[in-house]
Amino acid sequence: MTTHTDLHPLARSYLDRLADAARVLPPEDARELVADITDHLAQALPVTAGEAEARTALDRLGTPQELVTAAGGPVPTPAGRARTSYGWLALAMLVGAELLFVIWFVAVPMWLAGLVLLSLSAWSAREKLLGLLVLGTGFPVVLLTTAYASFAAYECTGGAQETVVQADGTATTTTLDATCSSLGAVPPAWLQAVFIALALAYLALQAWTVWRLSRQR
Amino acid sequence: MTTGDAARTQLRRGVLEHCVLALLQSGERYGYDLVSELSGAGLLASEGTLYPLLSRLRRDELVESAWRESPSGPPRRYYALTDSGRAALDSFRHSWAQFAGSVDQLLQKGA
Fold first, then answer.
1. Among A119, A163, B61, B86, which is least packed, fewest CB within 10 Å?
2. Contact B47 A62 (CB under 8 A)
3. What are the transmembrane regions (chain A) (predicted)?
């Protein structure tokens, strides 16, 4: 039999969704359907195929839901078909909450709605997990990063005073240079560069995830 | 879906199973090969739906299957007719001739 890794990336993603949809079938039937379609895709769709060719091959195959219905699964209801549109709304809500994070009374309900819609969407369990880990974390990460940055800046603003009592009883007070508490310590340049690189990588990962999830049928 | 499309879908559904048996009468074939031929003949709307049909034919003991090495690439599941499958095909061939004759007659009468 063909292993998953010998397949075109779009074929692998299709098989994930098929395995997910086939959970309504008896386990033996589900395994057989996925095995047959895996072998079909290994022959119909070369790993090196272009995207258009891959999409044509998958269109001819039929949707995972159609195959599961043909294998004796329940006929999809209008409610089931509506689940596809939940995915789009989930992406919009999660990204919207991240962009509008300062307006917390708008962002918090958007974020919560995005998480609920994500769980109700027609994506596979793996895609939902990807959405949760990469996009679901967006709003809290941006909120916490901003809160931390503001706090650190505030802690750094004050200078400290030091009073030294001399042996003769006179006291001299000197103002030390502005120091920061450990929380507010200005990180070295290399650490700042690491933070910026991590933030950019995180944003790039988010953009890739939106692109990937929005392209699934 | 137009009326013509709907009629084609119903007709396909009615004959597909026996078309698969007919393709196997000259010898065993593997799944993708069957899909390609049926799809080329316009008998398959969604290629993937043939595999559940093949599973059902196997459960009904009209076909049998075995994984076998292929000349090129990974092993493939080959399908072959059983004796019951051959009998079912013969019976269908007889019914189809009668059925097609009756429908043709009605269509010509109305024309």
1. A163
2. yes
3. 86-117, 129-151, 189-211
